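Please, structure for the following, as tokens.
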Amino acid sequence: MSQSGLNQTDKSVLRRQLLQKRRALPAHVRRHAEQAVCRHYRQAGWLLRFHRIGVFMASGSEISTLPLLDMLLAAGKQVFFPLIPHEPRLRKLWFTRLHADARWVENRHGIAELAHAHAVRARDLDLLLMPLAGFDAAGNRLGMGGGYYDASLAYLRHRHHWRTPTTVGLAFGCQELSVPLPVDPWDVPLSALLTESGVRIFRKR
């Protein structure tokens, strides 16, 4: 049972409802949101200081990261993409840096990722931009249910100093829950959230 008294079934129901809402967004709304996210990123001075940045490649109805990716590369940032472990029982992500000669492949979930080269762990990044199915007003994140990001960032729950990377959710505003999200012991909350409405800071890392 989670701290809020709700269980995993409740999370599954919330996830299904939020994904349905996200899939229903018109194309012009999506394009506006993608450009607005880039603008808010540039305007948030504290985000500009990060150099080694983890970014996801959008899948399905997730907000596209391509405009933001172009902006980060133009600014000389080092950009890393997650690698899902080949073995289903493993959950900790590796992150591979994007290079000009990088080769894309499709992982076992049908998501594009970089062909394995030199990879690092999440703790080696300065900033991690994370996908999500939903979020609440306290910065709790509802993922897709795979547990990859929570497993990769589990060490953050026990650290009081040197807490890298800073975790920022990247989403559409419609993915916000009107009720508190069920929180489990393994859930890693967001430091901040970036949507078409702006940047919302929840806690400092």
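Residues 1-6 have pLDDT under 50 and may be disordered. The domain at 8-201 is CATH 3.40.50.10420 (Rossmann fold).
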